[in-house]
């Protein structure tokens, strides 16, 4: 009896046993190829070309930003490749997505100190200030963050502060912005106002009452800026004219984070030392006892600032 052959040996059409069955050659799979790194010059060309569509430009910015995040050497090469001048034009465009992605690229490029200097030399400050005033979507918040990053260098603090509408733009954003925009604006002001001339500019731009209002609404970074501005007589005079300033600061001392308490104490020390009436009112509000309790705080800066304010208030007590 003939052996039964498997069905695979039969022709699928005639169902007869195949005398010369076809067979497939085996091809081993190709090894996986590493993804190719995009050519920065090609991406920059797409940004500057008038024939490029919006989607091409957005995609180019995404790829340039990813390249920026890789390492410092790539950021330096991009900074020297003409990418900055191409992106500057995108920041000034009226297209929201293009503007925002350009700002994110610049923010990543500014991670290195050398790039910070180069960006400012390329004229980036003017474009960032434009975005502060006219940006849409998240552009204004990102623009403020870029200024914070650039202002880490002392030389850039001077350049940014002296640029028309830079500090006033941050103050305006602090007043009318959403939660994120106000936080980023206050952070940028804090960084810039470590340079004394910028404190005067912030005060002259009307920052003091706006900062107090923001501090009262829970934005503790605003208290930090007040602590810096309180070093100036002009700012102290404005703070004393603000109705309820003592209640705002005491509220932060009682309920704020360690950093908020630290700067609220610093601001109170400046005001109580400067103004006799403020010191006496602080005593009546029980601030002396609050400071004594803070001498046991875990944070060394809080303890130090509390002790400084105690010394000032003790002097006021002796004069009563």
From TrEMBL:
Which keywords does this Swiss-Prot/TrEMBL entry list? Ubl conjugation pathway
**SUPFAM superfamilies named among the record's database cross-references:** ARM repeat
Name the PANTHER family for this protein: U BOX DOMAIN-CONTAINING, U-BOX DOMAIN-CONTAINING PROTEIN 8
What name does this protein carry?
A: U-box domain-containing protein
Entry-linked InterPro entries: ARM-like, ARM-type_fold, ARM_PUB
Q: Which organism is it from?
A: Salvia splendens (Scarlet sage)
Listed Pfam families? ARM_PUB
Tell me where in this chain the U-box domain is found: 55-314
